[in-house]
Backbone:
């Protein structure tokens, strides 16, 4: 469970770090948003180092959580309700993540 929370925190840090420059570049908000964006991306990189698995596996598995977090962000922050295809894509991504994370390892 703590690994899942770490994945979620990692995804939120990355989304915030990317969304704030989007607000500046696409919606005319202040360039000062780049400061917290940089901090959020630094936090994202640091959080990735806290995962106990091999880096490649962490990045691959993290992708599933990121997809779900991005669709949740779409709904909760941007106010756009996900489509059935969005939900299906999230489910497929989580199945892929589960295969990567839960596979038996001989290591």
Residues:
């Amino acid at each position: 469970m703590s690994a899942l929370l770490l994945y979620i925190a990692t995804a939120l840090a990355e989304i915030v770090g990317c969304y704030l420059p989007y607000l500046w570049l696409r919606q005319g908000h202040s360039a000062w948003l780049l400061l917290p964006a940089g901090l959020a991306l630094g936090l994202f990189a640091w959080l990735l180092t806290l995962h106990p698995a091999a880096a490649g596996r962490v990045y691959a598995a993290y992708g599933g959580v990121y997809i779900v977090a991005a669709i949740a962000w779409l709904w909760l922050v941007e106010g756009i309700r996900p489509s059935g295809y969005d939900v299906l894509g999230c489910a497929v991504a989580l199945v892929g993540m589960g295969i990567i994370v839960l596979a038996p390892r001989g290591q």
Notes: The chain has a mean pLDDT of 91. Residues 2-27 form the longest helix (26 residues).
